[in-house]
Amino acid sequence: MTRAAQRSRILILDFGSQYTQLIARRIREQRVYCEIHPPTLTAREARALGAAGLVLSGGPASVLDAGAPQADAALFELGVPVLGVCYGLQLMAHQLGGQVERAARHEYGRAQFEAVGAHPLFAGVGGSAKLSVWMSHGDRVLRLPKDFEAIGHSTGAKTATNEGAAEFAAIAHRERPLLGLQFHPEVAHSEGGAQILRNFAREICGCEGDWTVEAFVAEAVEKVREQVGEGRAVCGLSGGVDSSVAAALVHRAMGERLHCIFVDNGLLRAGERAEVQRAFGEHLGIPLHTVDAAERFLQALRGVVDPEQKRRIIGHLFIEIFEEQAQQIGGAGGADFLVQGTLYPDVIESIPVRGPSATIKTHHNVGGLPERMRLALVEPLRELFKDEVRAAGRLLGVPEAIVSRHPFPGPGLAVRVLGEVTAERLEMLRGADAILIEELRRAGLYAEIWQAFAVLLPVGSVGVMGDARSYESCVALRCVQSVDAMTADWSRLPADLLELVSSRITNEVPGVNRVVYDITSKPPATIEWE
Fold first, then answer.
1. Active site residue 107
2. C-alpha separations of 372 from 57, 223, 249, 316, 379 in Å
3. Cα 204 from chain centre
4. Active site includes 86?
5. pLDDT of residue 349
6. What is the pLDDT of residues 377-406, one digit of tens each?
7. Catalytic residue among 107, 167, 186, 379
8. Alpha-carbon distance 196 to 123, whole Å?
9. pTM (2 decimals)?
């Protein structure tokens, strides 16, 4: 049995909550491995995956709605702990014979929570002290199922018409490990939330907390060796963190049978080609073959404005080039595998793992590949969030200049040039982007920001330049703070820094006469504009 099969894990059933990914992050912070699955996961599948515990997420539906997502009833009979969060609590109560009704008033925002008794779920979170927690629900449990009891109630949102929501803010079965929370412990607004999830994963589910980056790297190397056997692989480097760490990991597993191909698609940031060649040649000692395909990509993108079509064109053309190059790798027969730096957020956002959700956007690494592809995929980072990838990169010896680099989309600047992609518009964007990054570094703020970049908008605006009327392009600046890109908040940069960046862009980048700053968080927006 492989280490992957032996690894204890928590399975999260996603009922469509915007916070599901945060549950996964918080559990992994306790050094416990977890995975997100659709709500259709069966008890048989959960048993086969070796579930040490289950979390039923929140969701936008009401358990009273026709067609509302349900859980396999046999999951509650597995004998492993189950924690229902918000919708998950209501679903558990509903399916096990309790009564749920629509609340007279929705309960959104902060509420005061107080534990009842000394349940191990709340060990170390302040005893009987009231905690400020985050509520977001429109139904309430009116009557608990048989053998369940309240182990906590909330007071902040308690009204004469909404007693039930306050009475059953936390519930537990008297004998079986079935638990429920009406609030969201995964969000930063909930005091003690991280400790509550730690108690569930480590103490109640009995997970040892041995899931570390070191253990992951050792396991991933073993899995790659098992997958590729004596085959040969190519890795398409983009210059970003993900593909670079994936290449370093697979190189440790395969050695010289891995051939890295860096495709200069003409959609790169300023100086990126030279930086990647230097990092792989001088620091990692991994052979790198560079292909100049800029004109080929620009031709394919001519006249295309739809972002999803851009992604498909770029993904398909990447594969064409990789397959052409792979035929020349390693003698007769060429390469057998394609290494990609796909991450867990890519998978979550591109493929609707949750039943009632919709795909947000197609990621280049996940949804932009042609159905007909001769190379088999190797995706060693598919289970990781971005911060975990950075930690793995440092462990593998990837240069800090690459590891700490801000995320960069697979389709490159094609999805930051809104509208048609042309050589002239790419050059404007590169210039503006380089100025932003240069000034952030000079101000000592680059490392404090999760992601910063410029976007070229498909609009012109009137301006005055050199005492003459101008009608030129507009650039938007996007700087955000995040942990794993699942949620993000806009960065509050100093006004004088923004003024300096704007002044430099309008003075140094021909064709730009206006700069704006994006102050939208995720959600409701995504980090990238396309």
1. no
2. 36, 25, 27, 10, 18
3. 27
4. yes
5. 60
6. 899 998 888 889 999 999 999 888 888 889
7. 186
8. 8
9. 0.70
